Amino acid sequence: MFRLLTLITTLPLIITTGTIFFRYVEGWSWLDAYFFTVVTLSTVGYGELVPATALGKIGTTIFIFTGLGVFALTIQQFASFAVRKREEHAERLAQRMARHAVEGATSPEDPAKG
After folding, report:
1. What is the pLDDT at residue 111?
2. Environment class of residue 30 by beta-carbon count within 10 Å: exposed (0-12), middle (13-18) or buried (19+)?
3. What pLDDT, on a 0 to 100 scale, did the predictor assign at position 108?
4. How confident is the model at residue 105 (pLDDT cuts 50, 70, 90)?
5. What's 43's DSSP letter?
């Protein structure tokens, strides 16, 4: 759980850093800088915005390598958490069904059925 919380706090930090970087290096609006950051991290890459400066291009490559890893780990951790919860739920249901089956097998016969 600690790992997931760390990733959840790291991802907004990376998005914020990328947004600020592109805002000042490329001179984009806050919205465009944020949009480019999220599109780049998610590997969608619409191509509407492209860094024009050398620093912007270098920063983008560094951003991709660092940010994509954190983004992918965050998605993986969410998926792992969801699968674990589903498995726990299925296990609880199986235990409940087994308990009901045992209770039904050990309960006295219904005299009305007789």
Report:
1. 56
2. exposed
3. 60
4. low
5. T
Tell me which amino acid residue 112 is. A
Query: Which residue is associated with the tokens 């970087």?
Result: 21
- Span 87-104, mean pLDDT? 84
Query: Could you identify the residue written with the tokens 């050398």?
Result: 54
Spatial CA neighbour of 11 closest among 42, 35, 33: 42
CATH fold of 2-74 reads Helix Hairpins (1.10.287)
CA dist., res. 20 & res. 23, Å (int): 5
* C-alpha triplet 66, 69, 70: angle, nearest 5°: 90
pTM of this prediction exceeds 0.70: no
Q: What is the pLDDT of residue 110?
A: 56
Half-sphere exposure of 14 (CA within 13 A, CB side): 26
- C-alpha distances out from residue 76 to 1, 4, 91, Å: 13, 10, 22
